[in-house]
Write a structure and sequence with these properties.
It is a single chain. The chain is of the alpha+beta class and about 140 residues long. The protein is about 35% helix and about 15% strand. The chain has two domains: about 45 residues; about 60 residues, no CATH class. It contains five helices and four strands. The strands form two sheets. It has a two-stranded antiparallel ribbon.
Amino acid sequence: MMLYYSTKAVIHDPTTYQKTGWSQVYKCHECQLMEPALFLDEICKKVYNETGVLASPVVIDWELQEHLQLTLKKAGVSNVLKNLHAKAIFMHQIAEIPSEFFVFTDKSAICDLDLLQTRQHSKKGLCTTCYVPCL
């Protein structure tokens, strides 16, 4: 019983505990440099280029899940031409751009890695959608 009385102040006051585990690779405000749709190795490269910290994919995955509360989910694929809401948002975003600034390309100009990606990170409890351009 004497042990309980001598230690209960430490047990009830979490600020006196030492922080254990991995230190955070990046802070919350640095998360803006990350695109959630990137592969882990691409995120590792970006973190190294921006901060100089060489982090493994395991650490990046842990950071995404524990610190940022992001989970990896299979993205629901939606065709932009069939989704009127997404089409309206896109048209609103490009409405102010003069037409002479647009460059139309053929299928070879589209990055295949973007089309192969079927999984994306999103906040816990939220769905994610991947809009694929009509080819």
